[in-house]
Every structure is written in structure tokens, then in C-alpha cells.
Fold:
Amino acid sequence: MARRAFITGGSRGIGRGIALRLAKNGYDIAFTYHSEVDEASSLKDEISKMGRNCFFYQASLQELEVPIRVTQQAIDDLGGIDVLICNAGKTKFTSILNLETETIDFVYGLNYRSYLLCTKTAANYMIKHQIPGRIIFISSTRGIRAYRNDAVYGSMKAALNRLVQSLAIELSDYGITVNSVAPGATSVRNNYALEELQSGYISTLVPMKRKGKPDDVAGLVEYLVSEDASYITGETIKVDGGLILYGPNEDPNGGKY
Structure:
């Protein structure tokens, strides 16, 4: 019987990379997208050609009732769930001096509350059916290192990193692991070469001299959902090419950026 994974924000970038990697490993996949149905359809086609079942749903996960509803729909369509990947999110930067309440509500709803509600739904199913499942949050190195104008977004990512610790303790009673993956600067489109040209400063800021790719994150997720990682829980693991190893406002040449 195929294992089953539900991925929020799966139609592009990191989510798409994870969906393809898990499908190649024999998973049936369900995923959400927000606005680009063509991207979602093309991903479904790729996964279907691998001989795997695939379902996708338009979802505005910042809305209160959506995360529970769409997670339950995915469970119903897949016939169960073994892996939940909460990846959906949107970066919003703003100064505290002109911060609007709508921005706070949006970032909280999408980048934090939806993760809790999807987890509640998936974990209840896993426990009821005695599935030693895997739950993974896609966080950010901005949840570890502070930057200008990211007080709301960065603090929500920091909250996810702390959240997995409490969830890991609670769900360990049922053999369910909960971990967080924190990417750094990562390409979200297919044309990595073009992005490199547009972001030449990356070679200075990142010790590994390039931006990350979705496959870099997908490789770690592939390991964390495997039986080999069954003793890892409550962790936040960076995938950033060493980006935040340098001190704040420091570059490898001793200058400032």
C-alpha cells in the first residue's frame, strides 16, 4: 500500500520539490495551491505519470475554516495520511512604524495558525488509526536570525520552531515525529541560472556560493519522513548553505552589507 502525503503550498518552489521527491519514493500526493492553477495542474500531471495518485485543491489557508476542511479533504481523497508537510506561507516585510493590523492577521493566519489546524486534523487521524506519522513544518532561517523589517514574519517562523518542540513531546506518545526545516535563500522558480544572475550578492553572503534549490530542502524532508529518521523529533534543521553562520552585518571579507 502506498504511503500518503499532504503538502500545503505544493504547486511551486519548495513545496513542488518536496511533492516530486516523495512521489518518486512511492507516495500518493495531495497538495494545495493558492492562485496559479496551471502550476498545480502541471504538477499533478508529472506525479500521475509516475503512476501515483495525486489530488490538488485551491485553498486560502489564512482563512479560519480552510485548513481543517482541506486537510480532511486530502485525508478522504488519499484514503488516509502518513505525512503532513506544512509549507504554505508568504513573506511580508514591513516596518513597525507603518505596520497594519491586516498584515499581522494575514501572516499569523497563513504562516502559523494554518500549521496548527492542519496538524490537529492530521494528528487526530494518525492517532485514531495508529499511524506513526511524520509532521514537518517548513520554517525559515529568519526564525533564527533577525533582520530589519521582518518583525512579524520572522517572529512567526520563530514560533514554528518553538512549536515543534511542544508538539514533538505531546505526539511522541503515539510514535509521531514533528520537526522543522529552516531554508535560507532558496530559488522558487525553475530558472535557477537567471535567479543567480539577478542575485549576484548571494555568492558573497552564502559560504556555499549559491542560492538553495527546492531539491536541497526536499532531500532533507525525504530523510525525515523515512524510517531512518524515526528517532529525530522536535528539531529545527537549517538548509541554508551556511548563510547565517556569519555574524550580523558581516561578510567573509570583513566588510558590511
